[in-house]
Amino acid sequence: MVRRAAAALALAGLICVCAAQPASAHVGLLSADPAPGATLGATPTLIRLSFSERPDVALSSASVVDARGVAYQTAPPQPVAGDPLSFQVPLHPLSRGVYTVRWRVDSAVDGHATTGTYEFGVLVAPSAGAVSRSSTTTPVSSPLELVARWLLLSGLVALLGAASAAALRFGGEDGTDLLLAAAGLALAVIGLLLLGAAQRGSAHSTLAALLRSPVGHALIWRGVALAVAGVALLVALIVPAARRGGLIIAGCAGLAAVVVHVAGGHAAASRWPSALTVVVQSAHVAVAGVWIGGLAALVLGLRGAPSPQKTAAITRFSIVAAGALAVVVATGVARAISELRSWGDLFSTGYGRAVLAKLVLVGLIAAIATRSRTRGVTAAGGDLGPLRRSSRAELALAALAIALAALLGTLAPPVSGRTAGLAGLSASGTDVGGRVRVQLHAASDEPGRNRFVARIADVRNGTPVQGASVQLLFTPLDDPGVASTTLGLSPAPDGTYVGSGANLAFDGRWGVRTLIANVGGSVEVPLELDPVGPPQQLSVEHIAGQAPTYTTLVDSDNLIRISPHPERAGQSRLLVTFYTGAFDEQQRIRQIVVTLRAGRGAITPQRVRRLGPGTFASPVTLTTGQNQIAVIGRTDRGVRLRSVFDLDVPAR
Q1: Residues 635 and 556 grouped into a single domain
Q2: Which helix (H) or strand (E) holds 333?
Q3: Could you tell me the CATH number of the domain that includes residue 192?
Q4: pLDDT at 1 over 70
Q5: What pTM, to 2 d.p., does this model score?
Q6: Domain of 114: which CATH number?
Q7: Range among 12-16, 29-33, 286-290 rated most confident
């Protein structure tokens, strides 16, 4: 039995080492403004970064530097009103050039730190290599944090086990429960102190600054709970009659420390409601303490000669352990599901492999426990030596299981690297036959050079499509006379297809046909992207008895005005006029395109008739509700002027 346990221990240790591979960031960068790889037409006044977890702004930092290393930020990160997931950094004016954003963020949820960099350009595009890299993100962790979490969890497990043994009477009769609880408390205190040191080091902050942060508050409340447990154990030591009650109170304080510890970890940042995941994770750790810590209390109580009392203790613990095992497995599986994106993450990520290793260990412990406890009960006063030896093997495996739990607390769950909510442009769709789904993301939502990432999957089973030839065909939907362009995408190590190009040459709606060819044939997936242009001021005027007017200030020198008559569902005459300056004269327009999207219908070009140098009329058919009219004009000098008008049309 011992040899088999040792072999299993070595195997699980190997799996543990394999699990400790680089992981995605604990705090994922969800969006950035300016976006990674973006080319701006003017200097930004600030950068704004948004994350998958609430950042601790006081412990975080960000800088914007040029190619010479000169920094342009004017202040440390500042909170964004109404957006707890973001912070912003004000900037000095930026001249023409490429700039690097370097950021470091500490999670206000679990204290984990992440660093990252990305580049953007002002009046010049970043290099192709920089755009293809887009951004880099690196989690910050240390071996000290792993050791600290292991000691803290081991101590809490021992404390909970001693308290449950005293409450349910399957521990020792000669003070061994109190000894185990005291040892557990000492381990937990050491682990808490080391965890504070590790978190202070990763935050590069003073102890005072750390304790003022949410992470520091969690450290303080863990300490308060452990202090209460220490007082209860001291009373139990001084007053023998109060020993059982003191142990139970210490166990309750240990449970409070578990809840605080869990609420300061991954469970509070899960994709499930945080209250649910904190309860599930707290139950997982607490019941594991009753099971594993209770086993330690049982082993200490089995010293000496066999007796009916010891046999009865084995029976009581076996009943408790069976129920605890079921709860541990159920809550562990639930937490794994909440942190994994798919079953494939069990094999492709360090976090998933650590989960698998932990499941293997729990299964081995359960198998050994079932056999040894059956033998112990049937011995009924016989030799308890085999039970003691197998229980010690269980505890050795349990120690490694706790180490894996500590490792999971330092590794980033796969869901923390999710890309939902990324800044830029996103679109998804399937081919006509419904066989292939494409999710396309552009790093920037502005026209100009951009980085495109396509995730292509088989609709039937969700598996990524690999080894394909992928091209994007860009066609401006609002400018029918502009030629289409193509961009080839290359496969990336993460299974996506990536490419960079200036295909979104200007703002407006673009049709993007994704052409996918492999050995099984070829398919086409139509998508649509809409890069934004400079902000435009809109004014609307309604005068009784007259057609309404909608006017936008395209830039400092040009305005576009439209007037639908009548503004109601059905046939209408749309008057379009281009002005220069403050309506002093019409802008001479060489070419004009007017498109209409009525309701959720397709974008359709409209017939246009010239009435003057900058005045045009177009017959349109409006529908009740939302109607979107896009007007694009090109001046004699080739300047492109565009505005989009949203009309909320009443019924007839």
Answers
A1: yes
A2: helix 308-339
A3: 1.20.1630
A4: no
A5: 0.63
A6: 2.60.40.1220
A7: 286-290
